[in-house]
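fold-stage: in
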Amino acid sequence: MKRLFPVLCGLILITISTAQNTREGNQQSSSATRTVKGVLEGSRIAVFDTAKDSCEQSDVPDAMARAFRDYKGTVHLIASIDVLRQNLGSTLLSAKHSCDVAYTSVHDPNPAHFNDSTWLDSFYSLDGKKIVALGHTEYHGWEHSGWCHLTNGFPGCEYDADTFHFSDDGGYHFKSLKAPANFFVGIPYKYEIDKGPSGYSVDTNIVKVGKWYYAMSTSWQWPQNCTADKRPQHCLTPLGGAPIRTSTPLDPSSWRGWNGKDFSLTFVDPYLGPVKHPQDHVYTPVPYMAYVTAINIYEPAHLFVATLFDGWDTTYGPEGLYLSTSTDLINWTKPTLVVTQADLLAKEPKGNWSYAYFTLLDPKSKDANFSSMGNNPYVYYVRLDNNNPPYARVLFRQRVKLTLNQ
């Protein structure tokens, strides 16, 4: 990575500092960025099959695959549910599932504590021993007496935020800070029984450029059935993704969001007191990032590549896996299709399948956090068996060939 960062950092930092903040400027910037084409190659390989590898029934792949190397040189491959188990091995491709538990969700019934069901799904190894972990924390009102009256609790009784966690033993055990210090990214509105809001979720890995650590956050629109216009009901939080960043990743209060002009937006805990101007603490989504699941640094072209997947939406075209490129994490190119969901389903045996959690990882990456990649990474994804929910799942990997579009 050291050989990449001087070139890439200069490019990225200059681009961010001079980025156009008007819609016209953003369009010009993204249109000048080269796009990447991805083609699946070879056969897929099962990395974690719950029918063979689970340590208990609820031990399933339920998040995007992330990886890092610890101080011993061991690779941690993680795609866990809210009780964290890992695949461990000397290489990314040889890592095997371990039954050792590295983190367990608390299921705290108080939404103000942001400590209910937590998926640790974004990691960054600082030195092999100190590992930052960002947790996607869902408050499940339907699981706590008196906090939900809906037959179907989602979305009215789910309240999402992200919390800060860390390991000081190389990622074998993760600790949490006590509320309110655990809060690091969330919306400035409290949970309302049966009304939401759904909140924020950091659904990508962390990448480092210069002194900055970046990730992408996802926002779910709220209130339900709201619109971008002021009538009939204006969205207090819009649908979409946006970059967040910090220069001090061990300080959860240091993360800042994109406000449409710069990275000065602060995230506030609404349970610490009245928020006078809540809209000042709601980030501005950037184009095409509504369904982003990973960010990689594509070394051959010094570009960011975003992995995008949504199996229930045709925003980009047919349902499927897409890639988008950027030089600054703000201006993104129109996503290019890798494979449709229909094409994936056509190759499955008889059954009722769906897919989730697509991400790219390159076993040849020299980056301890596997954020960089070359022309032949693997796409990791989870296949879910809809006839046997929620425990029959397989985490697959398959080679992808990347090329720059002319």
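fold-stage: in (second)
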Amino acid sequence: MSLVSMQRVGEAVLPRRSVQDGHSLQPGDPALHAVTDFTREYPVTVDAERQIDDALNDMINLGVRALLVYKEHRIVGLITSYDIQGERPIQFLQSSNYTQHRDIRVAHIMTPWDALTAVEWRTVQLMCAGDLLALLDEAGLTHVIVVEPDRQSASCVVRALVSRARLVRQLKGLRRAG
């Protein structure tokens, strides 16, 4: 075994997640197989003050389409690639004193915590993957946060995140293989 100097390696990035992230699912499989459970995987987060183009580059490098937004060690919202690449930056510039795209921060266009929709962990435990997809479709959501009551306080724990795109890929993966 030998150690390698990081000066020799150069810059480093986190591994990109593949399209096959997660295994193939059938609609009747437990929905738990379709969530990114933060007790098993680290959540991908972004500081509320990060510039939006930098946040989008983070998403691209990490192979995700949404980031939990934090400020002072608290989750304060969610931002998606759709938020950054869509109308929100333009709307923000039109309704603010800001004039430059480069001045837009994640906090300016994210969906704030109190405007998010969540599903409870115990509900996800009882659902199947097909029902979870139907829930996302009916609500018109690309992502949904899964929350669980915190036994030590009156707050909740962000337990997981569900990505509609990932769930669709997992369900379609079975059809391609079969």
